[in-house]
Amino acid sequence: MNSGLTAYLDSVKSRDPAARSRWDVLFYPGVWALGLHRVAHWLWEGNLTFLARLVNHFSRFLTGIDIHPGAKIGKRFFLDHGFSVIGESAEIGDDVTIYQHVTLGGTNPTTGVGGKRHPTLRNRVVVGSGAQILGPIEVGEGAKIGANSVVTKDVAPGQTVVGIPAKPVPVDVVHYSPGFMPYGTPCGEDCDPVRVRISELEHELEELRKEVAVLKTARQPQPKVKSA
What we know:
- The protein is α/β, with parallel strands linked by helices.
- The chain contains 6 helices and 15 strands.
- The chain has helices at residues 2-15, 22-26, 29-45, 49-63, 173-176, 193-219; strands at residues 66-67, 72-73, 78-79, 85-86, 91-92, 97-98, 103-105, 120-121, 126-127, 132-134, 138-139, 144-145, 150-151, 160-162, 167-168.
- It has a 6-stranded mixed beta sheet. Strands 1-4-7-10-13 form a 5-stranded parallel beta sheet. Strands 2-5-8-11 form a 4-stranded parallel beta sheet, with no helix packed on it.
- Strand 14 and strand 15 form a beta hairpin.
């Protein structure tokens, strides 16, 4: 158990340059929220729903993080800073990183659609601060959700999405941001799909103008050369 806790603390430390030691990580609210959720989820699976909710409310009071006891969370989950909400039927894989003020929200229960209402995050997903992932959608393995994005459709494995609504980033973020990408948001390049496309169209328009100018010049009548 001790080696498992040490490995978990080291995995969090590797994703947070602010952590100076394992003791720093041990007092993170996200670490406490996950530990208490493990207890609440165990009680929930045993149909002790009242006790599970009691642990859930205590955890929310203590950490500011609301994780429903029914949510399924994998190994080495890191919720940085906190103030996030994870719904009942949410599923989170291994080595997932979520930053502050994130919501894994569900569909409207008044529609009568039961069962799976919340998102599924596969392994190694990174979710930036303020992102809202809504409905029973799937975020593929290794995908990244940019800060303040609103995601309502599936995200392909390895894809990076940003914006409202979230759209794929039209740049090679692996090239620009190798390794772990903090907050799931590429920096140093233009990652707004609309702005990038407008820039591409402006470039194409400029090239077309140059070609038209060349054609106009070629079609102009040449002055006749008088014979001697």
